[in-house]
Write a structure and sequence with these properties.
0% strand; 75% helix; elongated; mainly alpha
Length: 221
């Protein structure tokens, strides 16, 4: 009986080691929560920036999709720069926060933050993200006719990155990716609500996902 128990424990240890070697397990739910908060703040700032440039006679961006065409050339470029700057700051803060909390979790569990599984995760996520980034730049390059599709495209390609990387980390991230893709597809049919869907995907879903992951994997009872 004692030998059987020892064999079971040994098998469990081997199984855990194999799991650690194949999947990056240091993702922190708290980083998802903070990323969502940053995105909501960014969406609020972006909305204010856009409405500052839109022709007052048009109301605002949400009252008429064509209002984006009422912005003069120089102001339009300034508006895009400000929105791009806000998105960049949200991304940088999210990455730094993810490194901070994931590093703490990895240290607490005795893992390395940047091992071969972490690099495999990054590479498999960067491929769709890089493709999506170039695609969004191409839409901006081709003028205002495509600018309202940037937000849906960001959600779709980000969702694809999460699905593609899910096989190298916690499987739950796959569901977040599928939800992001779904939101992006829906947003592509309701262009004047693009910023709302962006905030819902990068903000609200991240907060819900991060809280769920924290309660499931990190909460200390």
């Amino acid at each position: 009986m004692e030998n059987n128990q020892q064999h079971l424990e040994a098998l469990q240890d081997i199984r855990q080691m194999m799991k650690q070697s194949n999947r990056f397990l240091s993702l922190s739910g708290l980083s998802g929560i903070f990323a969502g908060i940053y995105a909501l703040i960014g969406a609020y700032l972006g909305m204010n920036v856009i409405n500052d440039f839109v022709d007052p006679s048009r109301g605002n961006l949400y009252s008429d999709v064509e209002s984006v065409y009422s912005v003069s050339g120089r102001a339009y470029g300034h508006m895009l720069f400000m929105c791009a700057f806000i998105c960049a700051m949200v991304l940088i803060l999210s990455i730094l926060t993810a490194l901070l909390f994931s590093g703490r979790k990895a240290k607490r569990n005795g893992y390395k933050l940047f091992d071969h599984t972490a690099w495999r995760l990054l590479i498999n996520m960067l491929i769709p993200l890089a493709a999506g980034g170039v695609f969004c730049l191409a839409m901006l390059y081709h003028g205002r006719s495509f600018v309202l599709l940037v937000s849906p495209a960001m959600l779709i390609f980000y969702g694809l990155a999460l699905v593609n990387g899910s096989k190298y980390t916690l499987h739950d991230i796959r569901y977040l990716g599928c939800l992001q893709i779904t939101l992006g597809i829906v947003a592509s049919f309701y262009l004047k609500y693009g910023l709302f869907f962006w905030a819902l995907g990068f903000g609200v879903l991240h907060i819900i996902y991060g809280a769920f992951m924290w309660f499931k994997y990190e909460r200390k009872f």
